[in-house]
Design brief:
Strand content: 5-15%
CATH topology of one domain: 2-enoyl-CoA Hydratase, Chain A, domain 1
Strand order of the largest sheet: 13-12-11-14-15-16-17-18
CATH architecture of one domain: Alpha-Beta Complex
Number of helices: 32
Distance between the termini: 34 Å
Shape: globular
CATH class of one domain: Alpha Beta
Number of strands: 20
Oligomer: single chain
CATH superfamily of one domain: 2-enoyl-CoA Hydratase, Chain A, domain 1
Length: 738
């Protein structure tokens, strides 16, 4: 039988080789059609007595499969929502049946009576790794770049095709549960050590090694389907279990504050599933999976962290009609922390880099940053000395701006000062001809105010990286008043080349991400002046879903930078633009005590040379003694920290700074960690409902001031019962571009 997504061939030993190679995809994914065909292959293999076993591999170079197509799940949820109003029981049953189809298929493979082996040649994630776990044998290529795992929790769901049940029956409880709750990606040797795969072999012997397992008499009956099976995780009701499971629950709550239904479900299905036979465990998993799919957290996270992010990464916001730029050489002005970081990610992507600074020594320090990062990768086994040398060879350093001649794009990353940036641009302008796209990596200065210095404003664009550049996945592209489509397109082509996620926003002071995050830090500063203890500020922020407390975040970006931004706003916009309470706090920190943040070892935290950081105990010297925790409403504090960010996002939409709701949400999560379980700043409002959000903000405004007053757009949406994704749905053309 001919298949669209698979090819099959049997050898003389009766081993059927099934090669998965979807014709219209760069990576194999599970769709309804793929599951239909895999089911047909299974039925055919069972019926054919000549088939002694099955090997499944991929025809895609370097990848096995990325797992299930989450757009398929999004469609399934949409059908459920439409059907639920008329037939709630029927809708629930259909959702359960459709959502558990893959699990039932894998169980049939597992119990078909003939051995199956999955030969993993590259990336193997989600439902694909669950297929491997259901097979009777697993062989992977011996290559650290090969990753496998069950990352579903990162997009608001959890492994629903038997992954939780099989992992906890194959490896120890702590390792298995940690992998599931963190969505860890495992290299082959780590997966082998955890006993989740059976062999690691050279690439050229992968399929043969898989076949040899079958020839050697691979048992087609799994251990848990035999009498007397004992899971490595041990019994739940045992001294070992009583030590592990209560502690696991405590750690889960400490890390998530119970904000993630999927993580909660993982704990439940693992705990419950280990007490029953496999078939019942799979049914428990399937019921919880269907339930989690219906939560607003899952819907929001799938939309933002998969669908929208995928659209943006594929160029949904790239100007149409502009030819793609094949970048080869990128110039970077400024070899400080940011410039050096941009140089590293560019060189790591295979681009040639010209790194220029005021003197050769400073430029060399910039390249040394890349050497240090590569040393870290080598130490962790993720790179070799040869990789390091090759990367460093791609970075040319100089104190002569003439070295920038011939660059496809030049990024300025000097000190955040208008005069310094203008001087650097003038030097670059003298050696770079008209038509060269020039980008400024500024975090607050309006692009339109810098652009006139360049040859032509249409070739000037903002590219705002986040710190540290090598770890932060978001890059903000800022379109100035006169920035042309070509400059935006070149910026997006560059961001795609370095494998980061872009958002495109229009010019304003602070652009989008920094406008939101500075409000987050401002609110924490005001809380301190109100007598909220620093530890309570940080804890409440994490309870609200923020991965990093605002005081710790302020230390990372530098406390003196916050002071400089405040002073710049005061100079440009007047005294009324800053809150005197915040100015008092930052002056006490920066000017009076030189507490500049992590960079000088003292900020809101103290950073000893050895040991963990700890909150600075002297904050009361500036703001006065803290009040008892009972003096504050925890829920109100949480609401304040999230609302100030979401309100600023709404203002950015109203002002036209953000023109695509996908970018507001994706940017807020990747750029400043806005509570991922909400789906982002605008999804947070949509999830609550505009009317409820406005009511909450009006209450906060009455207690804490006009910064919480909702903009006119939100009041109008509340009156009309509108949502951001309803009123500002991405245009069909933008979706098509993805």
């Amino acid at each position: 039988m001919a298949y669209r997504n698979f090819t099959t061939s049997a050898d003389a030993d009766g081993i059927l080789l099934v090669t998965w190679n979807m014709p219209d995809r760069s990576m194999n994914v599970f769709t309804v059609e793929v599951m239909d065909e895999l089911e047909q292959i299974l039925q055919s293999a069972i019926a054919d007595e000549a088939v002694k076993g099955v090997v499944v591999t991929s025809g895609k170079e370097g990848s096995f499969s990325g797992g299930a197509d989450l757009k398929m799940l999004e469609g399934l949820l949409g059908q459920f929502q439409m059907m639920r109003a008329k037939d709630p029981e029927g809708a629930a049953q259909r959702l359960f049946d459709e959502a558990s189809r893959m699990s039932r298929l894998y169980r049939r493979i597992e119990t078909c009576g003939k051995p199956w082996v999955v030969a993993i040649n590259g990336t193997c994630m989600g439902g694909a790794f669950e297929l491997a776990l259901a097979a009777h044998g697993r062989v992977a290529v011996d290559d650290e770049s090969v990753k496998m795992g069950l990352p579903e929790v990162k997009v608001g769901i959890f492994p629903g095709a038997g992954g939780t049940q099989r992992v906890m029956r194959m490896t120890d409880a702590q390792g298995g549960l940690t992998m599931l709750l963190q969505g860890q990606a495992l290299a082959p040797k780590k997966a082998l050590a955890m006993k989740l795969i059976d062999k690691v072999v050279p690439r050229d012997s992968l399929v043969e090694a898989a076949k040899e397992m079958i020839r050697a008499g691979l048992d087609p009956k799994k251990p848990w389907d035999k009498d007397g099976f004992k899971a490595p995780a041990g019994k739940v009701y045992s001294p070992q279990g009583f030590q592990f499971w209560p502690a696991a629950n405590a750690i889960y709550r400490r890390e998530t504050f119970d904000n993630y239904p999927a993580a909660r479900a993982i704990l439940k299905v693992c705990y419950e599933g280990l007490q029953v036979p496999m078939d019942i465990g799979l049914r428990i998993e399937a019921r919880h999976f269907a339930n989690v799919l219906t939560t607003k957290e899952a819907a929001a996270m799938i939309r933002s962290l998969f669908v929208s992010m995928q659209d943006l990464n594929k160029g949904a916001r790239r100007p149409a009609g502009v030819p793609k730029t094949a970048l080869s050489t990128v110039g970077i002005i400024g070899a400080g922390f940011m410039g050096a970081g941009i140089a590293y990610v560019s060189a790591a992507a295979g681009l040639q880099v010209v790194l220029v600074d005021r003197d050769q020594e400073s430029a060399e320090k910039g390249r040394a940053h890349s050497a240090k990062l590569m040393d870290g990768r080598i130490k962790k086994g993720r790179a070799t000395a040869a990789d390091k040398e090759a990367l460093l060879a791609r970075i040319t350093v100089s104190d002569d701006y003439a070295a920038l001649s011939g660059c496809d794009l030049v990024v300025e990353a000097v000190f955040e000062d208008r005069a310094v940036k203008t001087a650097a641009m003038e030097k670059a302008k003298a050696v770079l001809g008209p038509g060269t796209v020039f980008a400024s990596n500024t975090s607050t200065l309006p692009i339109s105010s810098l652009a006139p210095t360049w040859h032509a404003e249409e070739d000037f664009v903002g590219i705002h990286f986040f710190s540290p550049v090598d770890k932060m996945m978001l890059v903000e592209v800022i379109r100035g008043r006169n920035t042309g489509d070509k400059a935006v397109a070149v910026a997006l082509d560059f961001i795609k080349a370095i494998r980061k996620t872009p958002i495109v926003v229009n010019d304003s002071r602070g652009f989008y991400a920094n406008r939101c995050v500075t409000n987050y830090m401002l609110e924490s500063h005001l809380m301190l002046t109100e007598g909220v203890a620093p530890a309570m500020v940080e804890t409440v922020a994490r309870m609200a879903g923020m991965p990093v407390g605002p005081l710790a975040l302020n230390d990372e970006v530098a406390v003196d930078l916050a002071w400089k931004i405040l002073q710049a706003a005061k100079k440009d916009l007047g005294d009324a633009a800053v809150d005197p309470r915040q100015e008092m706090l930052l002056k006490g920190m920066v000017i009076d005590r030189e507490r500049l943040g992590r960079k000088n070892g003292k900020g809101f935290y103290d950073y000893p040379e050895s040991g963990k950081k700890s909150l600075w105990k002297g904050i009361s010297e500036i703001v006065g003694p803290a009040k008892p925790a009972e003096a504050f409403n925890v829920q109100e504090l949480k609401n304040r920290l999230l609302a100030v960010q979401a309100l600023e996002a709404a203002r950015c939409v109203e002002e036209g700074v953000v023109t695509d709701v996908r970018e507001a949400d994706v940017g807020s999560i990747l750029g400043f960690g806005f509570a991922p379980f909400t789906g982002g700043t605008l999804s947070y409002i949509d999830g609550m409902g505009a009317a409820a959000f406005v009511e909450m903000c009006d209450g906060l405004a009455a207690s804490h001031g006009p910064r919480f007053s909702p903009p006119a757009l939100l009041r109008e949406m509340a009156e009309k019962g509108e949502t951001f994704y309803g009123r500002f749905a991405p245009q069909a053309s933008e979706k098509a571009a993805a």
